[in-house]
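Hi everyone,

Forwarding the result from last night's run.
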Amino acid sequence: MLFRYKVLDKSGTEQEGTIETVNEDTAISALQRSGFVITSIEAADQKSQLFGDIELFQHVSNKEVVILSRQIATLFEAQVSALRIFRLLGEEATNPVVRKTLVKVAEDIQSGSSISKAMAKHPAIFSSFYCNMVLAGEETGKLEHTFNHLADYLDRTYEVTSKAQHALVYPAFIIGTFITVMVLMLVFVIPKLTSIMLDSAVELPIYTKIIIGLSDFFRNFGLVLFFVLAAGIVAAWRYSTTQQGRRYFDQLKLDVPGVGSLYKKLYLSRMSDNLSTMLGSGIAMVQAIEITSAVVENVIYEEALLKARDDIKNGASISRAFSEHPEIPTIMVQMVRVGEETGELSKILETLAHFYTREVDQQVDTLVGLIEPIMIIMLAGGVGILVASVLMPIYSITMSMA
């Protein structure tokens, strides 16, 4: 439950805020342990949090994690203690998931846990990559720099991924609208005109007969087709959650002409950025590769990275381990070799990350530029065929009656 309180600190200054605990007694105990004198405490009105306590509706966006990371970094730079930081941010958080998580992190820190271990209990918000970066910051004593690096990294990742996703929104909307309009025409409009055309003595062209046949099919078997498609989508989704299904669909992403090269560059950008960020924070290469394999979000690249990790453990150089896998291009292997020889591997990987990010941006822009004229041609062709199939017979009927 969420409780609002007013307290007096040790200097007698009045403070107010909110605290998330199981019940009021626990809230009072927590505030008293912090050295506060409670003047008032009451349950907060949570009517505005419609569905807030239902797990289905709870979600933490990438943007919220970026903002949270920057807030933590700013407070560390201001020499605020870790316990105070997470309590303060937990009280001010508007997202109920973030609020609950930060309160629990603060409680774990108060019990003697490190920040990274406390965060690791909440993988829905703090990934293994995030927690390992925090662990490296704790070991080096540069937590403010670590959280700033994390915010920058998450910002870059979100920007690249969202740009690729948003590029598909417009064509998906157009295709969906086109299919909906065509189905409505075939189910409701064409049947009314069909009776007129069939009652006439005019010979119907082949494309009109095809349209009439499609109309009859959708009217008679439309629901069956809908349920078959729905069942197929559900079956495909369930298959994609299996290891074999993940492998199939992840490989399919890489094999689709045009889009496949975009996915490859996206994964290479993510790999380079992850490795550069972790190596720059002092994390060992073997551990960095293992963490990267967990966040690359593609089984093919995940397996390649894990095999490279094993080869490095057995004494192989990083470039040699990478060269064994065709998923990792030659240019990346050569750049990594240069980084090994010069001792600037982190900077080399950062350069590669910028390179592949630019490549993703350019390819997304190119695909969007190609998709728009192709969509216009497809729409014009579909509408033209449908209109011609209806108007031409009607025109012939009119001419024969004249």
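Residues 22 and 194 are 67 Å apart (CA to CA).

Cheers,
N.
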